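Pipeline run #58 for the internal structure catalog. This entry was flagged by the ingest filter as a single-chain record with no existing model, so it goes straight to prediction. Upstream metadata was stripped on purpose; only the residue string is passed forward. Reviewer on rotation: M.T. Logging verbosity set to normal.
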Amino acid sequence: ERPPLARMPVEYLTPAIEDRAVEVQAALGDRGQHRAASIPDLLIAATAEVAQLTVLHDDKDFELIAEVTGQPVERLTTTRASDK
């Protein structure tokens, strides 16, 4: 059986995705938050949005992006051995 990551879809960056990332950055700028999300986070979120995928993350920037886009995001939680 393939490991879980090997079963995840592969998406490629396109001009439409780049355009969407710029749109979202501008929308964040309109809210005074243009420096909050990094360019890689904007591109990842735009890729997921265009492909209609949920962003699984441990980065508050994706929550901020989702406030603008309305796209599904899910924060991952980890359990440390010391927390058990």
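catalog note: The chain has a mean pLDDT of 90.
catalog note: The beta strands are 55-57, 73-75.
status: ready for reviewer M.T.
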